[in-house]
Amino acid sequence: MALAGTGVFAEILDGEVYKYYADGEWRASGSGKSVAIVNPTTRKTQYKVQACTQEEVNKVMEAAKVAQKAWARTPLWKRAELLHKAAAILKEHKAPIAECLVKEIAKPAKDAVTEVVRSGDLISYTAEEGVRILGEGKLLVSDSFPGNERNKYCLSSKIPLGVVLAIPPFNYPVNLAVSKIGPALIAGNALVLKPPTQGAVAALHMVHCFHLAGFPKGLISCVTGKGSEIGDFLTMHPGVNCISFTGGDTGIAISKKAGMVPLQMELGGKDACIVLEDADLDLVAANIVKGGFSYSGQRCTAVKVVLIMESVADAVVQKVNAKLAKLKVGLPEDDSDITPVVTESSANFIEGLVMDAKEKGATFCQEYRREGNLIWPLLLDHVRPDMRIAWEEPFGPVLPVIRINSVEEGIHHCNASNFGLQGCVFTRDINKAILISDAMETGTVQINSAPARGPDHFPFQGLKDSGIGSQGITNSINMMTKVKSTVINLPSPSYTMG
């Protein structure tokens, strides 16, 4: 049954076009234009959203600036209370939001529900953590530095940056939005959300949950539209005091244009899975399938290349192929394991990588099969470094296996990548695991498990082209604040109980 845009969400829909959110109300854009959102499964228009104008962005920025000043004066416990309320409303309305995820980004139904629930939990945790972190400051005394008497007390605290611009990606448009929204709000910032086109309607429903929770007008806004029209305009807007972006190459372009603005960026990966001879091969196979193929491989932390010792390669490839044969390929509504990739251009890109590997002699463990945006799971064995798939991120259900003759060879391939988000190593030898983990140039290394972003309070960061700064609830809160100091100068040295 169609739930999106009905019931409490009826006010966010105008005819057949979803409204945008500004100054505490749902509005139709003055442009009179809309942007179509194509369902990846049917390849037909599923939803439409407003094509906001630059003038509307300016108004949103002005309102955000005003609202932020008042919000910074709102007691911390009160901010936390509102976040808890939003979390409860979000979880209560998980069904219509999950339905949007199924139709906009072809996320399997059960995973779509999980994403919404996880997002509610993230908001609540953020409220708790924010109260603790932001409630504590620091006292420094001057006599700890040589040559100084104790005549100065320095009090430091964390203050909001101002207006945070949040740009989440299509693959987790709700979860990766709230992971930016929660920390920004608890820290006293205003928030402007620019959702991805695919995923925009799920994001608008999520924003409405914040609206229903009763946040002040203008504090949260959500603008939709064409990147060509408002993308650069938003990221280069003088009213923006911080940009939190998750996505692909666009992030590199944004970082070059953004100027003196704190950036938090996560820009994809080519997560390597290094398999040693002494690994538990059943565990390896299960994690390669889960890591490489869940949500059709459309995750930054998906296993993107398997670097496996020659002596165990045949056995692992056989085990993985047996598991791939059992995966259900089909509709997201039916909870299939492999669903259509997000767009036709995405499917075409994946196909290009596959064809390049074919020309250069990779071993196809399955027949390459595609219908529309649906690509059947494919394992490519005997991949060599001269193939594009060895280095490029497919963001689809295609996984290359590179056979190695030494651990050094595996580490070298991993570190030669321009990405460095996560990686994993499988071995029963804890000493080798630590040595390899230390040698891998990635933000996180998982030992005996596939890469994953969560739990959401764990630090999450990329090296090299995989990003700037670190996420995870605590790190995001700290990143969205600045330190402010007040120094008390005493007329004469003063020592506690001295």
Automatic annotation (TrEMBL):
The active site is at E266. Residues 26-485 form the Aldehyde dehydrogenase domain. The keyword Protein biosynthesis does not apply. It comes from the Eukaryota. It catalyses: D-glyceraldehyde 3-phosphate + NADP(+) + H2O = (2R)-3-phosphoglycerate + NADPH + 2 H(+). The keyword rRNA processing does not apply. GO terms for cellular component: cytoplasm. Gene3D superfamilies: Aldehyde Dehydrogenase, Chain A, domain 1 (3.40.605.10), Aldehyde Dehydrogenase, Chain A, domain 2 (3.40.309.10). Important as a means of generating NADPH for biosynthetic reactions. Belongs to the aldehyde dehydrogenase family. PANTHER family: ALDEHYDE DEHYDROGENASE. This is NADP-dependent glyceraldehyde-3-phosphate dehydrogenase.
